[in-house]
Amino acid sequence: MTNRKELYDANIEGHWWKIKSILKNGKGATKLVISDNGDTLLHLAVRKGKNNFMKELLKFIGNEEIESKTFEGHTTLHIAAIVGNKDAAKLLVEKRKELLVNKDHKSNILVMSAYWSNQVNTFVYLWEAMNDKGF
Fold first, then answer.
1. How far is C-alpha 73 from the chain's CA centre?
2. If 0-12 CB within 10 Å is exposed, 13-18 middle and 19+ buried, where does residue 132 land?
3. CATH assignment of 4-132?
């Protein structure tokens, strides 16, 4: 059984080697909720701006995990929008463009999360990505 605290700590400390070992040996570790607000490894990596870590993590993650939501109804792309992590947003849109149309628990469209959080660069990127992808 995978220890959630061990995953959380390794993520925060940026110990990719430890996470990789857990992911290879612990089935389902990418789906585990590891924080009080419902973050998975991917949510937390995006929230903390650990984009290199996130890029490696995406190799282990399927669409279901990418689309998972926190207890507040936020996907990883919502979090990228809220915290202004434009690089993470780009990686996520490349992997799963359908994330662009997900709504949060209040039925707010994703691009508005960046707007309301005053994340101008991320807002512009998401707006252009939505138009480019035909949404």
1. 12
2. exposed
3. 1.25.40.20
98 has a pLDDT exceeding 60? yes
> Are the beta carbons of 123 and 111 closer than 8 angstroms?
yes
Please, which residues have CB within 8 angstroms of residue 21's CB and are 6 or more apart in sequence?
A: none
Tracing tokens 């434009």 back to the chain, one arrives at 86
Token duo for residue 100: 């662009």
Provide the pLDDT for residue 2. Answer: 62
| pLDDT tens for each residue of 65-91 | 899 999 999 999 999 999 999 999 999
Output the 3-class SS for 77-109. Answer: HHHHHHHCCHHHHHHHHHHCHHHHHCECCCCCE
Q: Residue ranges per domain, the chain?
A: 4-132
Q: For residue range 18-45, what is the model confidence (pLDDT) as tens digits? A: 888 888 887 788 888 999 999 999 999 9
Distance CA 73, CA 56 (A): 24
